[in-house]
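Pinned message: reference record for F-box domain-containing protein
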Amino acid sequence: MNRRVRRKLTRRGQEKVDCPEVDGCLALDEKGIVDWTRLPDDTVIQLFSCLNYRDRASLSSTCRTWRTLGESPCLWQVLDIRPHKCDSAAAVSLAPRCRNLQKLRFRGAESADAIIQLQAKSLCEISGDYCRKITDATLSVIAARHESLESLQLGPDFCERISSYAIKAIAICCPQLRRLRLSGIREVDGDAINALARHCRDLVDIGLIDCLNVDEVALGNVLSLRFLSVAGTTNMKWSLALQNWSKLPNLTGLDVSRTDIIPNVVLRLFSSSPCLKILCALYCPGLEQDAAFVFNNNHKGKLLLSFFTDIFKEVASLFVDTTNNERSVFVEWRNLKTKDRQMDDVMNWLEWILSHSLLRIAESNPQGLDNFWLRQGAYLLLSLMRSTQEEVQERAATGLATFVVIDDENASIHGGRAEAVMRDGCIGLLLNLARSWREVVQTEAAKAIANLSVNANIAKAVAEEGGISILANLARSMNRLVAEEAAGGLWNLSVGEEHKAAIAEAGGAKALVDLIFKWSITGGEGVLERAAGALANLAADDKCSIEVATVGGVRALVKLAQNCKAEGVQEQAARALANLAAHGDSNSNNAAVGQEAGALEALVQLTRSPHDGVRQEAAGALWNLSFDDRNREAIAEAGGVEALVALAHSCSNASPGLQERAAGALWGLSVSEANSIAIGREGGVAPLIALARSDAEDVHETAAGALWNLAFNAGNAFRIVEEGGVPALVHLCSSSISKMARFMAALALAYMFDGRMDEVALVGASSDSNSKSVNLDGARRMALKNIEAFILAFSDPQAFSVAAASSVPAALTQVTQAARIHEAGHLRCSGAEIGRFVTMLRNSSSILKACASFALLQFTIPGGRHAQHHVRLLQNSGSSRILRAAAAAATAPIEAKIFARIVLRNLEHHQIESST
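Predicted structure (tokens):
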């Protein structure tokens, strides 16, 4: 194949990439298949230029030819190693490719130490993030090895270990330096700045940001200076700054944002600095609190960018003849066909300092800025996200992710700011940035989408614009930070019921499960917590829970519960398992979780965690799992009884959520009489009584349910009396807001005093001398009195009289509707329990008869979840005769007779329905 190769320059951002131009084609073989390893060299290089560095390295291993092409200098003029771990070994392996490297971005002290190994002597630009641990020695060596350096930027975090010594070394070693931006240095003394003035004659841009002390006098000696930023720098002596900076012959832009500058200094700088055009003073209280200065907009052609000025209008005044829409000034400048080099320098500097200050201000989240953010801040960040400067793009996206958050701990965002973001069209732009091949940009865009998606309207907009598929794809990234933020986005989106199915359809569940398997070994607590949290939300939906289980979610989550020690990961893994197990009536996930090796043991162990959130979710998972008979016994075998009793003991002062789930798990286990006896022997009665006294309605229900199950056993019933449980149950029965809690408290009291406990009371519940003395007769009278009051609360004398005198079905229906407790239809009783209520219909106590018939009414009402099950148990026990006798008994209370008639009618209804 003959082809000519012409070189051309393609633009990516601001840098030029020298790439071959394709002039030829690749033929198919006889089978119509392309052999990719035989692509023209220029095509391969062009393909490589579109990939991130990890993918370039992967493709380079395809064959020898591609390995050679993958080392082409045009592919390695710009290198961003921030998304990757770069130690000395990695740098040595990269060195052969980096001989012509022009621009380098890195992250952290380890990467800084490794830069030297790249041997990129012609390096012009270095930019570093997270430089807190970088020392003078490291920075001095970097400067000594890169004499051609024109730009050095370290920040935005503080460079605490860098001193004036390193700045002097930079000045001596890098005479071609044009830009120096450093953050958080304790002191920049006069010797260091004077060294820059002497040796770096082309230095036009200095940023000494968030520093503690800067020599104002020495800065006046850097005569080449055009742009200066001292944003956030404290201890400024403004009289010295005014005296020396006003003499700088070329100073065009000055950034004093987040400082204590005062109006008089600003006015004198404007009047005495001949070339000064722009002064940026965002969040300077000394200016903003001076009403006279705020309303004085006449600065004689000088631009003041502040919270009280229209920033877009100020910037637009630089383009009097070319700007039609002030709000679009940044876009229109980028689209200008005729470029002005000096104006481009001004605008690029403006974008950089604005993005930096807005991010810093968003991070500190000071009060009183809502008007600024809503009026122009949100749109300003949107404009900066369109910048061709990668750093500006990233910081603007991070700023968007940050300024909407009010409470990071509780994931609360500012509604008005979120609406401003959506109004200004940021969502589509963020999604476009998320498609970038630059992994750092992907990370920041995904983070912004994740934070904004806490707002339901924005979450809807993200979904409608295809954001779910984008996030699902990013969750498959090999870069942990990208995957982490994408998982966070899916987590927040999955809160909405309307988005769960879309996430599953986009392959989100599979991507999240794969994330857990990928990162659970090497460790990545952030990505694991977010992936597990998203899966937990998906698992709350019946259909999505099936998808989660199908793609391996059960095994992945159990693995996390077993092996991960991070509190947040444990909590979300347990919550996800709890939600998977919550659909026992509609799918097999409950049983699947219980059958997964080590699952129950891991959850039992998590109930002993020192963290309430972990214990709460683990107890909730065990509660849901206990609805399966096999799981219930397996939990007990795994030590669940002892662990949950201990949990109930320890949570008397805990959150209502933990109390509810601790009592609920014991309620679920106590369905088995063997477990119920074990709970009583382990001391589970006393903490359940304590929980029954809780102020929370949900805790009332679960504690009452557990005590109801325990009271079925005569020994446990006596323990409840011994531990003072009768007053607690009486209080629930009479005073709880929850009808269910009152109902189950009444049933527990009925179990305790239907006569079966009397034999136990005679011999004592225990053989030792520590048995507490109790007044059974007094407790019985109190219990029966309150059971009667509970039953009467559901009776209408007039409706009962009509029902007693009439055989019309409508009369019984009216009584049923008044007496029905809808939640009681979810309760499932065993044959022994149904048999006990039937036996209670023959009890000598009219109150217990009424209670038994009332309970059977609740359990057999058509439409109840387990009504047919209870009807079959009644039919198999031959209870119809006893019910008829109760309905016809002359001495029985009218409530008992009417309720018995209704139960008989329910049996007939189910029988007719079954035959039909």
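Pinned by admin. Summary line: The chain is about 60% helix and 5% strand.
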